[in-house]
Amino acid sequence: MSSPLTFEQFLRETGVSRETGERLAAYLAVLKKWQSRINLVGKSTLTDPWRRHMLDSAQLLSLIPEGTRVLMDLGSGAGFPGLVLAILGVPEVHLVESDTRKCAFLTEAARVSETKITLHPKRLEALDPFPVDLVTARGFASLARILTWAAPFLLAGAQGLFLKGQSVDDELTEAHKIWMMREERFQSRADPSGQILRIGDLTRV
User: Fold this and answer.
1) What's the predicted TM-score (pTM) here?
2) Is residue 18 in some structural domain?
3) What is the separation of C-alpha 43 from the centre of its chain, rounded to a whole number of angstroms?
């Protein structure tokens, strides 16, 4: 098992400036504080948070299509990857989260990291479509369910970046029963068993 990724190693791995890294560190400090009150992330992941959460989210930056301005993160939870990408400079980030306590956390994390976000405290199916360039999600539902929720945005021309684990092949098989899509796969830099899916040209079967 590899040693936990340090703050300095994260900066070297990503090329993130120290100033931006310190904003991420402030976010992480709030996460650790709130974790004792509400379950934001798996407890074991906090033994290696710079790899499991910060690098896992930050690696998407290089895969974001050129010209992307508006990003929507589905089921944001503790803010991964959406809030991280907002800190890293995506111009307009919308976080969608129905849990009231997690919304309170996201508001505080955005405040301490001095990050502008738009928070939508509602269920995904209640979200009225609006123009976005990119939809992201990490680990909160199967690909088929994520695509169903994201469809109003993807069908309008947005692309999707979705962090997935070992079940990615099975999830793609299920999703292809409902959707045709252009898909690209990228190996995760944070998790040897993880993959990133970039989805576009979504149409119903």
Assistant:
1) 0.97
2) no
3) 18
